[in-house]
């Protein structure tokens, strides 16, 4: 990803410098001939050259897109099921631990809690380990989204989507369903509590 970023940024920089030079030359050069002339060769070049540049950018972009979609040897697999309007989490690697995660009503919030974002049971995940999330839905379209982790995967009934991530910092990360899934669409938050791997290996039951 970093190499592709540098590759694309270099192409953009060269194109921007070329256009800037052309604009500067047009504004500073005194026009001595105002007759309209044909320049078919130039038109052919500035039509074919951008197409070639786009192809050179598209091929590595598609390759990285498919590589990032593959999940190779995740350390943990957790299944998330969307309902109207709460989430169910299954820790398939820990004896089938299953629990629901509901939004806390305002009357049950503690000082400092975030309104419409706190839940009764947080999904606890380890840091410094690749985690695979299997995401589906039981009723309508949902979306398991945590913006601060760069995660957004649709929960589709009858389909099992997956995403993988590796967090590097502990903390509490908040998200919400980003699909219009019904009347209480904005009231099914997602709270992920990321803890060190050594503590997580002691058992997720102890951290719930």
How would you describe the overall organization of this protein?
The protein has 208 residues and is of the alpha+beta class. The protein folds into two domains: 1-69, Helix Hairpins (Orthogonal Bundle), CATH 1.10.287.90; 76-202, Immunoglobulin-like. 29% of the residues lie in helices and 28% in strands. The chain is built from three helices and ten strands. It has helices at 2-28, 40-69, 197-200; strands at 76-83, 86-91, 97-101, 123-126, 131-137, 142-146, 151-155, 161-165, 171-176, 189-195. It has a five-stranded mixed beta sheet with strand order 3-2-1-5-8, with no helix packed on it. Strands 4-10-9 form a three-stranded mixed beta sheet. A hairpin with a 5-residue loop joins strand 2 and strand 3 (97-101). Helix 1 runs antiparallel to helix 2 (40-69). The protein is elongated. The two termini are 35 Å apart. It catalyses: 4 Fe(II)-[cytochrome c] + O2 + 8 H(+)(in) = 4 Fe(III)-[cytochrome c] + 2 H2O + 4 H(+)(out). InterPro entries: CcO_II, CcO_II-like_C, CcO_II_C, Copper_CuA, Cupredoxin, Cyt_c_oxidase_su2, Cyt_c_oxidase_su2_TM_dom, Cyt_c_oxidase_su2_TM_sf.
Please summarize what this structure is:
Helix content is 29%, strand content 28%. The protein is α+β, with helices and mostly antiparallel strands and 208 residues long. A five-stranded mixed β-sheet has the order 3-2-1-5-8, with no helix packed on it. The protein has a three-stranded mixed β-sheet with strand order 4-10-9. Strands 6-7 form a two-stranded antiparallel sheet.
Terminal CA distance:
35 Å
Question: Considering DSSP H and I runs of 4 or more, what fraction of the residues is helical?
Answer: 25-40%
- CATH C-level name of the largest domain: Mainly Beta
Q: How would you spell out the order of helices and strands?
A: HHEEEEEEEEEEH
- CATH homologous group name of the largest domain: Cupredoxins -  blue copper proteins
- State the low-pLDDT regions, or none: none
Strand content: 25-35%
Question: Based on CA inertia axes, which overall geometry fits?
Answer: elongated
Family: Belongs to the cytochrome c oxidase subunit 2 family.
Domain Cytochrome oxidase subunit II transmembrane region profile: 1-72
Cofactor: Cu cation
Pfam family, one: COX2
């Amino acid at each position: 990803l970093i190499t592709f970023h540098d590759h694309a940024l270099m192409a953009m920089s060269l194109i921007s410098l070329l256009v800037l030079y052309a604009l500067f030359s047009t504004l500073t050069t005194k026009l001595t001939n105002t007759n309209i002339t044909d320049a078919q060769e130039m038109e052919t070049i500035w039509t074919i050259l951008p197409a070639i540049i786009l192809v050179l950018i598209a091929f590595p972009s598609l390759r990285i897109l498919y590589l990032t979609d593959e999940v190779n040897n995740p350390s943990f697999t957790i299944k998330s099921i969307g309902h109207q309007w709460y989430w169910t989490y299954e820790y398939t690697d820990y004896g089938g631990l299953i629990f629901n995660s509901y939004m806390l009503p305002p009357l049950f919030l503690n000082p400092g809690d975030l309104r419409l974002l706190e839940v009764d049971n947080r999904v606890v995940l380890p840091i410094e380990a690749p985690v695979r999330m299997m995401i589906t839905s039981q009723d309508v379209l949902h979306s398991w989204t945590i913006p601060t982790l760069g995660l957004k995967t649709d929960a589709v009934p009858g389909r099992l989507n997956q995403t993988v991530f590796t967090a590097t910092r502990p903390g509490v990360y908040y998200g919400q369903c980003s699909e219009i899934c019904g009347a209480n669409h904005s009231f099914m938050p997602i709270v992920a509590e990321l803890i060190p791997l050594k503590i997580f290996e002691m058992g997720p039951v102890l951290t719930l």
